[in-house]
């Protein structure tokens, strides 16, 4: 078992990572002061619920907790205001009070939705994350919680840090292979922005990671979480440094929005976005090996580096302009300087961005 501490002053919290943690949940909750006198609400989705919801409810009941559960439809479409209202209905009907805690059991979708519910129910109650995807090693660190607006992703949200994160690696064993690769995309991203050796480790251990080898997972998730935790602890509210975590996301979010949420998994879209950022880096004069190495890392993890040919450059450019990272009319990109280090670059000429998107299309040029 490894513990990563997210250091945020009085909002600091631990991430416990290991196998078999769920069976000790009662003790973890008591150690973290989760009240026995107020009901808890578990939010999960209909892919995760059949595997783990009954078990979690039973373990919490045995520990003396009353729970209500809300199961939402799996997928990005549940990160919406209408599903949020349903979650709030369950909370009100379940008589959650100011001392209650919301538990997110699932991936990033459930984490963002349940976290936003916790941030806003009665102006904010406690929140615990039980991530069940690899991608959630990213989404469970840093307290960004949100739902989507039909025009743009994550537009309605808050910063709300959890009390703790309980990452039981056993729950990952039921993840579909595409979700495994999608989650590994954010893991290698953490290496690409801050730790080139870690990015190379991800490539060298790609087959163990894809096969969900517990030792490789524990190491990779702990290192990924600690890189993110370090960045977040230096800039919790994304005034500057935290933006580097958005490597690949300006293009990636636009691809998700244009393709329609659900065609590309989040990690797949940002893998294409990271290939795009590496192309931009080379076009801006960085070493050509940055693109080749980035692509080889992504491909070793079975991630896409080009997008479907039916996606139009105009639509992607428009979607990028709705993105929060499009500040005051300037395109803001996270650009690799080398493998393991990035810069925030403003004012990249629009024409260069257009050409890069054109090249990202399937069948496009393989070299920059
Ligand atoms: N808040 C943040 O800082 C942050 C960071 C990165 C991503 N995100 C968000 O995270 C979301 C993507 O997260 P995700 O990839 O975890 O998506 P997800 O929550 O939709 O999970 C992916 C799929 O796997 C299923 N699933 C989850 N755990 C499972 C398990 N153990 N066994 C079987 N099936 C399982 C889910 O039902 C879903 O179908 C996006 O909405 C993205 O915006 C947020
Ligand atoms: Zn992401």
TrEMBL record:
Domain spans labelled 3-dehydroquinate synthase C-terminal: 183-325
GO CC, any one term: cytoplasm
Binding site for Zn(2+): 186, 249, 266
Catalytic activity annotation: 7-phospho-2-dehydro-3-deoxy-D-arabino-heptonate = 3-dehydroquinate + phosphate
Binding site for NAD(+): 108-112, 132-133, 144, 153, 171-174
Broadest EC class assigned to this enzyme: lyase
Cofactor(s) recorded in Swiss-Prot or TrEMBL: Co(2+); Zn(2+); NAD(+)
Subcellular location: Cytoplasm
Domain 3-dehydroquinate synthase N-terminal: 71-181
Gene3D superfamilies: 3.40.50.1970, Dehydroquinate synthase-like - alpha domain
InterPro entries assigned to the protein according to its UniProt record, in alphabetical order: Dehydroquinate_synthase, DHQ_synth_AroB, DHQ_synth_fam, DHQS/DOIS_N, DHQS_C
Sections of the chain in a coiled coil: none
GO molecular function, one term: 3-dehydroquinate synthase activity
Entry function: Catalyzes the conversion of 3-deoxy-D-arabino-heptulosonate 7-phosphate (DAHP) to dehydroquinate (DHQ).
Similarity-based family: Belongs to the sugar phosphate cyclases superfamily. Dehydroquinate synthase family.
Entry protein name: 3-dehydroquinate synthase
Organism: Paenibacillus glacialis
